[in-house]
Amino acid sequence: MVTIGMNYKVLPGKEEVFEKACTGVIEAMNGIDGHEKSFLYKDVNDGQSYLIASEWGSENAFNDFCQSDKFKQVTNWGKESILAGRPSHTVYKQ
Q1: By the 8 A CB rule, do 78 and 86 touch?
Q2: Can you give the pLDDT at residue 76?
Q3: Confidence band for 27, pLDDT divided at 50, 70 and 90
Q4: pLDDT (tens digit, 9 = 90+) per residue, 45-60?
Q5: How many structural domains is the chain composed of?
Q6: How far apart are alpha carbons 24 and 21 in whole angstroms?
Q7: Where in this chain does the record put each ABM domain (predicted)?
Q8: Which of 1, 4, 35, 55 is the most exposed place for a label (fewest CB within 10 A)?
């Protein structure tokens, strides 16, 4: 089991668009082989900072999902000009 922390900083005024897109990403993860559960968190001290915490059976299962067409269909960050910078992912191994 591995937990992936996906950290995002969004542009001011884009919070609602980002949250809606994340809902789509989390819904897309449901039923993916190796995915257990995911949650979206918003920093109470910085309204533009978010974390998706996602539990996977293995790091490879997560990496496979990130390369999938399903993931690409729900992540149009560049097209929508939502993110303030490049997202960072952290792997927490148990």
Answers
A1: no
A2: 64
A3: confident
A4: 999 999 999 999 999 9
A5: 1
A6: 5
A7: 2-91
A8: 1
Helical (H) or strand (E) element with 21:
helix 15-29
DSSP string, 27-55: HHHTT-TTEEEEEEEE-TT-TTEEEEEEE
Distance CA 42, CA 31 (A): 24
- Facing residues of 37 across strands? 55
The Cα 63–Cα 89 span in angstroms is 11
CATH of the domain at 10: 3.30.70.100
Boundaries of domain holding 60: 2-93
Q: What one-character DSSP code corresponds to residue 57?
A: S
Cα angle 83, 31, 41 (rounded to 5 degrees) comes to: 35
- What are the distances in angstroms from CA 15 to CA 9, 81, 83, 84, 91? 9, 12, 10, 11, 25
| pLDDT of residue 63 exceeding 70 | yes
